[in-house]
Amino acid sequence: MTRQEKGLWATVIVLTACVIGMGGWVLFSGIFSQEASPSLKDGSLAVASIQDRAITEDEWVDELKKRYGREMLMTMLNRQAVALEAKAKGIDITTAEVDAEIDVMSRSYGSKERFLSEMENQLGITEAELRMETTYRMLLEKIATSDVYIEPQQIDAYLELYPDQFRPKKQLNLSMIEVASEDEANQAMDRLENGEDFAALASEISLDEYTREEGGQIGLIEEDDPFLPPALLDAALELEPGDIAGPISLTDTYAIVYLHDIIEPKAPSEDKIREAVRKQLALEQSISLSELERQLREKYEARISAGTVTL
């Protein structure tokens, strides 16, 4: 999984978690007690105030409904429709299947613990939220592919055509310092050789705004990451953990790279590889998941009452 794919996956999870979270507040807004939120004259509870202006629970909920109401209702309807279809077809997702899927998602992060930590610390996604969304996606995929049969020969042909797709790639945990000139890079190398801390020096002098505040930390990248400058990646691949290389000439600047460690993920079993290919080929032959959701809402007669939200 590339950094861009990580970002796309995280975005989907974040948006869904936000919608579900806000919907939860709408559904359970009654948790505000009379003691904590005194009633106004119209009976609505005050949930916040600024100077002498109260913001009522009704105002708050109305604003949430206007902004996110349709998305929340569609999410709830989709889940109900998918649950009904899964029950009708006798389809279920086991805890072991969810664990295995999260293990696959974690592979490019080096470990499951690192992946879950990054999801929560960087994106605010708890393990419970991740498991809930993963379970729903897997259930939807199972329904979509339940009537699709893939011949063993099709799997063989795919693996012959793409033999390296499931080969695990090395993960490099890198930090870097970027400076304007070769002289500055040499001066930085001298300071590092004299015992200065890499992270502290990166925070002080690095030009790269995305890593400077993290002490130069790039994080885990794959050995063929297309978004890292080739010269930097080539230099990093020559290092042993704990080594520093530089100056490295980039397009208009120079860099120093530090390799923290190398992670070599374990290769999946042959059975898991074949199942992944079967699933991928089946999904390619099935309708899109969004179209499946639409069809299931229609099948189970999902309706949004007029005036509930703006459609």
UniProtKB/TrEMBL annotation:
Keywords: Isomerase, Membrane, Rotamase, Signal, Transmembrane, Transmembrane helix. Residues 169-261 form the PpiC domain. The keyword Protease does not apply. It is an enzyme of class 5 (isomerase). Its EC number is 5.2.1.8. The lineage of its organism: Bacteria, Bacillati, Bacillota, Bacilli, Bacillales. This is peptidylprolyl isomerase. It comes from Paenibacillus glucanolyticus. The chain crosses the membrane at residues 7-28. It holds the Pfam family Rotamase_2.
